[in-house]
Design a protein that fits this description.
Rossmann fold; 2 domains; Hydrolase; 7 strands; 236 residues; two-stranded antiparallel ribbon; HAD-SF_hydro_IA; 5-stranded parallel beta sheet
Length: 236
Amino acid sequence: MTIRTVLFDFSGTLFRIESARSWLRAVLREHGSPLSADELDRCARRLEAAGALPGGAHPQRIPGHLAELWAVRDTDTDRHRAAYTGLAREVPLPDEALYDALYDRHMTPAAWSPYADAAEVLRGLRERDVGVGVVSNIGWDLRPVFRAHGLDDLVDTYTLSFEHGVQKPDARLFRTACEGLGRDPREVLMVGDDRRADGGAAELGCAVHFVDHLPVDERPAGLLPVLGLVDRRPAP
């Protein structure tokens, strides 16, 4: 079948979260809690290793008391906040209020940057009359990020795990996205950076294409192959 709809993951696929250092520095500045440059670097490294920045590095170790919560973090807003602030609290910071402030910061459009070719690919799909959906494991509404970066008009539907109580790789989330766009899964391409989570779409019969989860400046054209996959016609 011809690909008539493309589903995209959010973090690490269309957008990339800021660095742990930038994240921490912005919050410290806003809250008037300065650290020396060495302390800032040390805390940022520890937060990154803890996996406390949503969309950033995975935890090197999940504390036992957070393991059960971590497994279902993307099914509910409260669970998502509790999981990530719990990881952040593994790192001592000068003010208890900073843990929630860090979580709040990561939900702001300023914390996210679209990959350089994201707009080009989304516009190219629109020009080809190909439907576009976003399917994300997430605990908050990412639509304002797309609006702030001028990409919301290029997305037809959003299927977010916390809104459905189901997280990838559960095929039910992908089925919901396909139904929302009125497409047979065999006409759908799922694009993501996580082989386990995003690969769950294959269970429905969707084609799957993976990109590398890299910093924005290290992946200038990782999404461009998607246009070629859509243009490709099935063998007669």
